[in-house]
Specification:
single chain; alpha/beta; OB fold (Dihydrolipoamide Acetyltransferase, E2P); 2 domains; 5-stranded parallel β-sheet; 5-stranded antiparallel β-sheet; about 35% helix; elongated
Length: about 240
C-alpha cells in the first residue's frame, strides 16, 4: 500500500509521514510513505509511475499549483485512488466534495483519533479498489480498467493489448503475458495460447483449436493449452 503526502511545509510533511507510518504499523498495515514538496513534483512522478499511490494526502495552499488543482488533474487522468485534503484551510470543503475526496483534515484542529480513523478508512477503501481495478501504463498515458470488464489480452512482440468493456482496448509494453496472468490470478482468466489470456466468463464454446466469445469473436487455442482448458471449462 503506497501513501503519498504532498505539502510545501517540510515540517508538516515529515510530521505526518512519521505519524501515518506509526499509525499503520500499530494496525499491522504494511505501507510505503512517499513525500512531495510540490504538486508539480507529485504530478510529474505520477505520470511515469507503474505503481501510483493508493492514497494521496494534499495540502491546499501550495505555490505554483494548489492542492485543489492537483486533485483536479489527477481525476482528469482517471486516478481512482483515495484523495484526502490535509490543510490549515477550512474554505474548500465543497471543492473536496466535487473531487470525490474521501475526507478533509484540518491541521492542528482535527483530533488525532479522527485522523487515525480517516487513515484506516482510506487504507480499507484503497485495498478494496485495488482488487476491483487494474492499471495499465504506456508512454505517459494510462487506463484504470475494472477487472470485471476484462475480456481478453493478446500479445505480439512484447506489446500487450487489453480488450475490455464493450469495445475498448489499450496497448502497452510488457515483457511477458505470464506477469499479467500472475497479477490477475484468482480473477477468472484462462491462458488459451502463448499469446492470449481470456476471461472465462467470455467463453461460450471450446473446440480443439479455437474458442468462441460472447460477442462471436474466435480466438486460437494453443495445442499445449487445450487439455488444461478442457479441465477448467469441461462443458462448453
Amino acid at each position: 500500500m503506497k501513501i503519498a503526502i504532498c505539502d510545501d511545509n517540510s515540517q508538516d510533511l515529515h510530521y505526518f509521514a512519521d505519524a501515518f507510518k506509526r499509525l499503520a504499523d500499530n494496525h499491522k498495515e504494511d505501507v510505503e510513505i512517499v513525500t512531495y514538496l510540490s504538486g508539480k513534483q507529485l504530478l510529474f512522478e505520477s505520470d511515469d509511475a507503474d505503481d501510483p499511490a493508493d492514497i494521496v494526502f494534499l495540502d491546499v495552499n501550495m505555490p505554483e499549483i494548489s492542492g485543489i488543482e492537483v486533485a483536479e488533474k489527477l481525476r482528469t487522468l482517471d486516478y481512482k485512488g483515495e484523495i484526502i485534503f490535509l490543510t490549515v484551510s477550512t474554505t474548500h470543503y465543497s471543492d473536496a466534495f466535487d473531487l470525490h475526496a474521501l475526507h478533509y483534515i484540518v491541521k492542528r484542529v482535527t483530533p488525532p483519533d479522527k485522523i487515525e480513523d480517516i487513515l484506516m478508512r482510506a487504507i480499507r477503501s484503497a485495498r478494496k479498489k485495488s482488487e476491483e481495478y487494474i492499471r495499465f501504463t504506456s508512454a505517459g498515458e494510462f487506463r484504470n480498467v475494472a477487472v470485471k470488464s476484462l475480456r481478453y489480452f493478446e500479445t505480439f512482440n512484447k506489446i500487450v493489448t487489453v480488450h475490455y468493456g464493450k469495445d475498448d482496448r489499450f496497448s502497452f509494453y510488457c515483457a511477458s503475458l505470464k506477469k499479467i496472468e500472475d497479477q490477475l490470478y484468482g480473477n477468472g482468466l484462462v491462458r488459451i495460447h502463448r499469446s492470449y489470456l481470456v476471461a472465462r466468463s467470455q467463453i461460450i464454446k471450446v473446440t480443439y483449436d479455437h474458442i468462441f466469445l460472447l460477442d462471436g469473436q474466435m480466438l486460437p487455442v494453443g495445442r499445449k493449452y487445450y487439455s488444461m482448458l478442457r479441465e477448467i471449462i469441461p462443458d462448453k
